[in-house]
Amino acid sequence: MGHTAAVCDSKIATERVKGSNGVDQIVLRNSQGASAKVSLHGGQVVSWRNDRGEELLFASSKANSKASKAIRGGIPICFPQFGNCGSLEQHGFARNKIWIVEENPPSLPSKDSRGKSFIDLLLKPTEEDLKCWPHSFELRLRVCLGMDGNLTLISRVRNTNAKPFSFSFAYHSYLSVSDISEVRVEGLETMDYLDNLCQKERFTEQGDAITFEAEFERVYISSPNCVAVLDHERKRTYVLKKEGLPDVVVWNPWEKKSKSMADLGAHEYRQMVCVDGAAIEKPVTLKPGEEWTGRLEIIVVPSSFCSKNLGF
């Protein structure tokens, strides 16, 4: 495994450090002082800070520090399934594997590298993986930190199998918020969703925005490619722009469920909301040699921006 991160601009620093679980992490920085930290465990973004040093992603104070377990927080990669079904572990195995730094990855459009600090990671199945999910693949991940501080994740799945296979995928994004009761999600109005708290029954969103008063776990299907998460107290809005990811998962465990989660601190559910770019309702099917790309960009803007400015 190489030890040099793939970086477009040599003036933008990257650094390799050890995480608390003993696994290497890559720190990306831009010239404005923003940073992102990517663990080789799971290819997981575990930290994203703006140019004032403020953490933008939630991480639990009780996050598991064992090298074999995904950290509760950041942006875990859910592949080849989202949720818990069949013989695979919940949310698939990609988030619990050690990825390698790829020195010479296949090219991506210049918009995904120019002027950005980035790292390219690669995951291939082990013999153990092939026993529980018998499909050969290459999963590539590029994590980019832009000069403006925007965070972009681009995943590519290639079928190196002799037969077609299908998979689900999600960027399980834990966003840091002041208080969940002060948060609203815009851009999913009138969308159909599958309610995981009602046996995945299908409903249509009736509100003019999503707000939170209890446990919430929905998959909004065939959703717009731009969604906003407004944090009124911090006067901060996260704008999520996605490509190749037709669905959006919105989740907060609320008080009762969070008490049963050993790796989530008391009342920490109030400081987080998960809003995921995903492909879940209709799994992606790849023929031999085919490749799928899913792209998520997260932008932070002042909450004076309203939805009409975001292209809804």
UniProtKB/TrEMBL annotation:
GO BP term, example: carbohydrate metabolic process
CDD domains in alphabetical order: D-hex-6-P-epi_like (cd09020)
Keywords: Isomerase
A GO cellular component entry from the record: cytoplasm
Name of one Pfam family that matches: Aldose_epim
Keyword Isomerase tagged: yes
UniProt cross-references to Gene3D superfamilies, sorted A to Z: 2.70.98.10
Enzyme Commission number(s): 5.1.3.15
UniProt GO MF annotations: carbohydrate binding; glucose-6-phosphate 1-epimerase activity
Residues binding substrate: R72, Q90, R95
Keyword ATP-binding: no
Top-level taxonomic group: Eukaryota
Matches recorded under InterPro entries: Aldose_1/G6P_1-epimerase (IPR008183), G6P_1-epimerase (IPR025532), Gal_mutarotase_sf_dom (IPR011013), GH-type_carb-bd (IPR014718)
Reaction catalysed by this enzyme: alpha-D-glucose 6-phosphate = beta-D-glucose 6-phosphate
Family annotation (PANTHER family): APOSPORY-ASSOCIATED PROTEIN C-RELATED, GLUCOSE-6-PHOSPHATE 1-EPIMERASE
Family: Belongs to the glucose-6-phosphate 1-epimerase family.
Protein name: glucose-6-phosphate 1-epimerase
Protein species of origin: Deinandra increscens subsp. villosa
